[in-house]
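Appendix B. Raw example, untouched.
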Amino acid sequence: MPGLPGPDDPGIATGIRRLLEREGHAAIVVMNGALVAPTWQRHQQAGIPFDVALLDLVQPTGIGGMETLIGVRLTLEKGRQQGNCT
């Protein structure tokens, strides 16, 4: 199961990645909420979609989890309209 953690703290990101990998999952860590939606879209288009995204609701800088989730949903809707995502 591919996972996409998006925390802002490098220590937390490392811990989440290691936990996911120890449980047999692949993990791609994105430290900036603005990069989550494009990363999600690239993996969808490559045929290796993520099963889960772990997001910080509040980020001290950049885009927080709710805004990131909205971006992912908009990306998915745009892809569906273009026939690129399921």
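End of appendix B.
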